[in-house]
Structure formats: structure tokens, C-alpha cells
## 1
Amino acid sequence: MDSRSRHSCLHPATLPGPSGLAYADAMMVVETPPQATHQAVHFADGLVLDCGVRLGRLAVAYRTYGRLNPERSNAVLVCHALTGDQYVAEAHPLTGKPGWWEAVVGPGRPVDTDRFFVISANVLGGCMGSTGPPSPKDEQPESGRILPWGTDFPPVTIRDMVRAQKRLVEQLGIERLFAVLGGSMGGMQVLEWAALYPESVFAAVPIATAAYHTAQNIAFHEVGRQAIFADPDWAGGRYWEQGKVPARGLAVARMTAHITYLSEQALTRKFGRRLRSGPSLTLFDDLFEVESYLRHQGSTFVTRFDANSYLSITRAMDFFDLAAEHGGDIARAFAGSKTRFCVISFSSDWLFPTAQSRAIARALNQAAANVSFVEVESDKGHDAFLLDEPDFHRTLAGFLSGSATLLGLS
Amino acid sequence: MNAVPPKGVRYVAKNMRLDLRLIAGMIAPRSRVLDIGCGDGALIAHLTREIGCDARGIEIDMAAVADAVAHGLAVMHGDADTDLAHYPDQAFDYVVLSRTLQAVERPREVLRQMLRIGARAVVSFPNFGHWLVRWQLLRTGRMPLTPAWDRPWYETPNIHPCTIRDFFALCRDEGYRIEQWLAADEAGRRAPWRRSVRLANLFGEQALFVLHRTA
């Protein structure tokens, strides 16, 4: 999950609302889905999903940074969160904003692209070029326009996403990744990688994540989904027929989710009870600064994200339960693992609290795996993993560097 | 499980405490080691980088954990009293508890866990039987303050002080075999009272034991 805007809260809200419904209408500015061409690998043999459905065609959109060494041993896979994508360390083609993890990935950064070959792929079910709800359906009518999957897109799991990434990594000629890392949903993928392909992962860094989605996590996602369903422009998932997008619903989903990415301290520090204008009591204007911030987050999100993808990916997260996949015991997922793990959490993250990371670390202990576990002191909430957190960066850099030394990487 | 010796040593504990040097000397090369209360990881850095051990640590102080991990060491935030239960039986060749036994909530249980998850336990602790401790208590009637016991009673983390003789008694009660033991001064220099437990208990400022679980 990310706050791509890097908390550009001081910008005036793009869409101040005069009143009730009119305000909501004003938020809906996007009429066509975002378009851009993305670098991708296409697999003609498709992919069999956990749900049993075979996707006839599989596209995996990706970006790479740095250079693969001749031994092909310095590859690092970065897994993105719910609303992230493959544009980790470069300007985003749709928004023009900096890559979502430029603080962490780049020359001289903790994930040093002078040293490592960094790969990032858009997840299966996503909307930045990998196969997902906006992609063309396998079976198309004889004539007429090309139909997207939309809500007919089969349900995907975190494990499906990882299988798709494995195809890409193999296609790039890499047998074993030096490291797999990611935060939030990216961390779920890291855990799944280590469980599914232990021989292919030398080091794994699950950050601000959990081995399963809690009832609270699912509950917040459900509020977001209901907001999308409640938008008449969602049109039962067939909004592309009218060339519209359910911008109101998707924006509200984003606003709700965004609150869960921040801590109470962070909101207080950034906004407190500050007012945007005079203290006149109005019902519908965005009176408080925190309101305009959230509205801005919501309205910019809809310009780059597909509503059906949001439904698909939130479902995949909700379904995720590593223990359930391994007979009710997370430790079994990692039995005999030679992978070195570094589990990192943030003290003020209440969405994926430290207790969840500790449970992962303990399960790894139970499996006698090599594990480091650090809770980084931060008041920035779940989003801390995306932000400037020197202790986090120092820890990550040290772990990767130590692991590289063990592997004999120069 | 043995770690490959590193090619470039980036972090060597040059000023490793002398008592840690004594402990390091008791550990066979290339073994699997868990250091409980590892601090900044000086001992595991030494074991990993100098003698090729697969050495890991648990530390309760988060800042120290972050430091250790940032130096490439396998350290996790955890508590000796609660986290040892999560390791499988016989996962390590040695489990080290250096100057921490007196500070845990349930020392006997921690020792049991150490010898469950490891073949051997290496334990060091400050000796409350040292003559200066006894003398201060006798002379002033107040809690002693010595180089080894340097915090007032109301803020010391050392809630379970014991003497060398107490520890011998505990090992006997629990059926642990003592493979090696020695007494040392505060700096960790070996003290020459190995022939008599009573003399060691009087003149040793700290003690170091290697225990083995009797089958």
C-alpha cells in the first residue's frame, strides 16, 4: 500500500465540494481508464490459478534497475503493495511522480542498484500491464470491440501472483534470487516466495506484513469494496461499457484505506485540528485540512487505478493465510528452509502490527530458519516502510550487505 | 547449517569483552550457536567471521538489535523468558547466556529451555558470593554496590542474584552435567581458584559454566 503522493497534503484539495451530492459528482473527473504501454513478458501457455481456472494468456509487466552480473546471482525482486506497481525507482508513466520506493532502491540506496539487479513486476490482477481485470478476456466475441475481463476475471491469490513472478524470473534466466523483499502485500508475496520456492530465494525481507489477513484487515477492505459497489458508475463491474469509471466509489475506498496506513500521531502532527479557511461552521465544505488531504488522495488515486483491479487484489489479500496453506502451522511453510530472513515491523503500524511480524519470526525460529527481526521505532504508521526512516534503511542495507558477503557477492 | 566463512570481514569486535573471549574459546568452530542477550552482537560477529559458526542472537534492547542487524548479523528482538519456547529441540550446538541469567524472570526455566534447544549451554553470571559483596552487606547492613553489582536495589535489572555454589546446587538438582567451569575477575581474566569451589565463590567476581544435559 502506498501513498504515492508522499503526503502532498499542503496542496489545495483538487476538488473542493460545494455541497452534498454535488461534491461527490465533482470528485468524478475521470471518464476513461488510464492508458499507457508497459514493458511486459507474454506467456502463451497461460497460468493455472489456485481456483482451478486456467488463464489462457499471461502477461507480466516489469521493470529492472541495475545490471545482472555474469553469474546471474545478484538479482533482487521487489514485490509491491496493494496499490503499488513496477515503477519502483523511476517516474511513473501515468502520474509523472517519483517511483514509490526511490528512498530504498537506487544507486547507493539500501537496495543498491550499483550492486544488485533489481526486478519489479506488476502483480497478477493489477492494472499496470500484467494480466488483470482490465486485460482482454481469453474468449472474445467474433466481432466487435475487445472485451476486458472486468469482474469475470477469476479470483487470484497471493500464491498465483508469486507463480506469475516466478515465470518472469525464469524468463530472465535467473535460477536463484539473491533477495526478495517487499512491504505490506509485498511482504505477503515475500513469505509466499520463501515457502513456495525456498531453493530460489537466498534472502527474504518481509516488511510491515503478516502471515494472514486479520478480521480487522478484511473489514477495512470490505468497506472499500462496498464503496465501489455503491457507486452507480460501477455498473455491476461493466463500467468500461459506458467509458466511465466508478471514481466516487474508488476514491472513498482509497480514503478509508489511507487512514489505515497512517497513525494517529502522524495525522495529528501533520494536520491536527487545523482548518482550511475561517472557522465558519459548514456541513459540506472540506473544513479541516485532514479532509482535503484525504480528498486529494482519493481523487488522484482514481486517475491511475482500476476499480475492478482494486476488488481483485483486496480479495487476494483477504484470502491470504500462510498457515492454512500448510496444515494450520506457519512453521511448516518454512521447514528446512536455508533462506536467511529479516522480518521488519514498525512500532506505530496498527494495520500490520509488530505482533504479526513477531509471529512470523517465531514460526521461523520453530523451523530453525536463520532469522533477524527488528521493530523500527516510528510514529508514521504502516506507511513508514515507504518513507524516510533512517533506522529502517540502515537495518535493510546491513542485512542485504551481510547476506551478500555470505554469498560472496562483490 | 554451517555458515560459509565470509570473504571480507567488515565488522570485527576488536574490543570484545574479555568474558566474551573466554566464551568464544569454549565454542567449537563451525557449530550452530544461539546467543541469548547478545547485545550489539560482538560475540556472534566473532563466531561467524572468525571461526565459521552459524551464530544467531536474541536481544531485548531494540536499538542494539537494529545495530546488530545493520552490521549483517542474524539477531532478533526477543525475550529470554518468552521466546526460547519457540525454538525446536536440539536446534543448536551451543546456547549462550552471558551475564543475563540473574536478570531473567525464571532462571531455572530459561536453563531448561537452553538445554532443550541446544546440546550445550554456556552460562556466565556475576557471583554474588564474592568477598566484597559479603563484606559490604556484613559491614554496612545495606545492599552491596560493587563493580559487578553496580546498581541500587530499586533499579537493578538483576532480580535473581546467585553465587557459584548456588549454581552448582541448581545443576545438581536439575541433573545437568558440568563440562567446564571457571571463575574470573570482573574484566574476565581467569582466576586461579579452580581447585576449590569455596575459594572460587569467595574470590571470583564472575563465573562461567558449560553445561550438558544428561541423557
## 2
Amino acid sequence: MRETAADLQRKLSGEAASLVRDPVIEVEKLDAHYGTLQVLFGLDLAVREGEIMVIMGGSGSGKSTLLRHMIGLEAPSSGTLRLFGRDAAEMGAIEMLELRRKMGVAFQSGAMFSSLNVMDNIKLPLREHTDLDERTMDIMARMKLEVVNLSGFGKLMPAELSGGMLKRASIARAIVMDPKLLFFDEPSAGLDPVVSSALDELILRLRSAMEMTIVVVTHEVQSAFKIADRIAILDEGRIIELATPEKIRETSNPQVQNLLNRRAVEPRVDPAEYLRRLTESA
Amino acid sequence: MKLIEQTGRNTVRCLDEVGYGGSLFGESLFWFIFGYRWRQPVRPNSIAVQMMQVGIEALPIATLLSITIGVMLAVQSIYSLGLFGAESYAHVGIALTLTREFSPLIIAILIAGRSGSALAARLSSMTINQEVDALRAIGINPVRFLVAPTLIALVVMVPALTMWSNLVAMTAAGLYVSQAIDISLGAYWVNTIEVLSTVDLLHGLSKSVIFGVLIAVVAAINGSMVTGGSEGVGRMTTRAVVHILSAIIVTDMIFALLFTQ
């Protein structure tokens, strides 16, 4: 069987391959705040064309915030975000909407529109952004349902789907416009290991079949090592490691090892600070 | 000190919401007028669906309320004017009160309860479920897709229902008055049309256009500011209805002070 360019690229070291491609996403010195609370601290990250970048970290590490910035749902407090070589801050709202047609997002909750059935959910981007007739849109939506193994479920409402089916339907909607860049927010969260593994296979298949650049946010270690070309590990809003899965495994960084080996770390408690927290009014 | 601080915070939040409402209104108009140029049109079928939900489906309850208001106003007019022996002038008060005040107000209150709450609940549950984020990620402006069709439907249907309410309430009042003071319904209508001017009708209709805008914008502000889970949806829906009703009544008073002197 003939190997695709993406298959060959995966056989090469992810890091080496990624260096020869142009960056699709470039994040430079990115700071982000929620109110007065700073959640991202001067992040630098480049995702290159055709690679699968996995962003890992514990709860509250800032990985979902980073994803929201990459998608353009949040504006950074400072720093630069370039998508397809264009500075997001210099783009107007309409240009950003245009750019998002090249991107697909599969949200953690699925975020399917509850008032539309699965088929209409998938057809919505086509209906809004193309002049295709209804029959062609039906065919394209069915093709994407086939890709995610959901053929025959198009008439169901999102509330009638299981968690895994909901995520796959959400992926079908995300890829219906054949985007160049695909984001996954916690694709395996809340799924059993079999369904989770099937989703990993699907992500790999999407990259090799459609040559997409894929960014996955997850805290599932097994899943991350299975699909990633490179892994960025976040801790308290900072990237503490960025390397290929092999190098991440070998790292001596204790925070990374704690995350990979699922070791809980007891926070150091300053007695005076602890007393202040207990006694000060809310 | 805490009271002053709280008052200050509430004032800032209130101004913030008013500003946000203004931008929602402006953005909706922008997409309605220029959307086609940017391949982000406000689709006519979305507006038609909203018109059905906001207007046509509200017709039975709007008709019932209008009959009730018409008859109630007729009973009170006959009684109060009867104290001076002036029952034959009942049509004057009924026609002017209905067209200038009661019909716009009762329809606005009805639509606020039906469609304002529905819009706020829909937007807040979509926000909570990341559906609004999903729209933006797909490259669809949520204001254009969710708010603009409802706003346009309300701006058309609230005045249309107000006109319908005028007609139904005056007919119901006429039926009562014609029995009470022994005149024909035709004579009642002739007298009513003589009394009413275009200005009276426009007074009520222009108010109802403003009420339509207020219902859509205030519901959208509250719906999109939701936090928390399903409890937040309920809280913001209730808040939306209370704010819409308050906005309608205050606007009505301002309108009366400015244009009924």
C-alpha cells in the first residue's frame, strides 16, 4: 500500500519533521488574564503544518485558556498570536470570521446545537459559508458521518446520543468544511478506554487522510503519547516542557514526571499564610 | 462605606449593560443591512421562523387578552362616565386609551413574557453549553445568527400585534358599549373613527417598535451574561423578564410625558 506524505512524516522524528514545515500557529510571549488573575505567563509555541501538537497539563494549568486564545475566542492581554502567518490582533472581526472557515473545533462537551438534529448540525457550516444545494450538502454531511462511524445517526437529536457519539458528531461538524487546522478540547474526557482509543485512531486517520494540522488539549497521558508528534506540557500557565513524546518520557523534570506518573504533589503550606487564609473575611 | 461602594459597582455594571445593549442593537442592524456584503447575511427564513414564533403563535393569547382589556375598559368607562351622565362619550376614552396606551403596553408585556424569556433562556443555555463558542469557531457571528433575526421579527410583529389588538379590543368594547347605551355597533365604530387620528395610531405604533427593540436587546444582554449552570439560566431568564418589563414601563412613561401634553 502506498504511504501518504503524512504517514512518512510520522515515521520521521516528529520534531525534525515539524521543523521543515511552516508554522500554522505562532504564539509569542502570550499573557492572559481572567479579571486580575493571570493564567498564562509569556507563552511561546509554534504549531507547524501537518503536525499533531498535544497540549497537556493538570487541571487549572491553563491549557484550555491557551486553546481558546488559539481559536481566537479570547484576546490575549499581551503577546502575539499569528494564525496562518497573520497577526490575530491586526485582523478585524470579519477577517477573523473568514479565517475561522479554515479551522475546525471539536469542543469538550460536543457543543452540538440542541435544537438541530445531527445532520443539520453538520450541514450548518456548509449552509452558512457555501452556495451548495441541499442534496450536495446532504452527501457531504453523510460522508463526514461515515468518517466518524456515525452513518445512519443523522436524524437523531444531540440529546439522544451517547457521550462518545456526541464527540464524534462534533468532529464530523468540525471537519465538514475540510479545515486546514483542527482543534480538539479534551477529546477523551469522560469516555471509556475503548471509545477513547477509537477517537485517538480517528484523529490519526484525519491527519493522514486530510493532512490537517491538529492541536489537541488533553490530560490523558496514554492518548497524548499515542497521537502526538510533539507535546507541550503546561504547569501554572507556563510551558515547562516542549518536545517529542520520546524526549518527554526521558525528561528528568520532576513536574513532568509527576504528571506522567499521576503522582499527586502536596502543596507546601506556609503556616502564617494558611492562618491568614482561614481568618480573613471572604 | 460599603453601601457607597456597592452603589458605585451597580452603577458601573448598569452602564456597562446599557453600552453592551447599544452595541448589540448596532451590530444587529449592521449585519441586517451589510451582512450580504460580508457573506454573513441575516437569512429571511430565520426571520420568518422568528415571526411565526413571536407573532403568529401569539395571536390566540393576544386576541383573548385584547377582548378582555376592551370589555374591561368599556365597563369602567360606562361606569365612570355614568356618574356625570356622559356614557355616550365612552368611545372617546376607549379609543384613545387603547390606541395610545393599553394595546401597545399589553402586547409588549405579553411578548416580553413569551418571547423575551424564550430568547434569554435560549441564549443563556447556548452560552452554558458552549454552543455560542461553537458558532464563533465555525465562523458564524452569534449576534447575526441568534439576535438579529429575533430583533427584526419583534420590530415587525409587536406593532402588527398592537394593530390587531386595537382592532379586537375596540370591537369587544364596542359590543359592550352598544348594548349598554343602546346604539348600533356600526354607529359606535363611526364615532370611534371620528375621534381617532393618525397621530394617535402612530403614537401607539412607534412605542411598540421601541418595545420590540427593548424586548430583544434586554433579553440578549441577560442571556449572554449568564454564568454558572442551569441555575444561571433560570436566574438570567427571570432577570431578563423583570428588566424588560421595567424598561417597557419606564419607556412608556417617558413617551407619555414627551408626547401627551
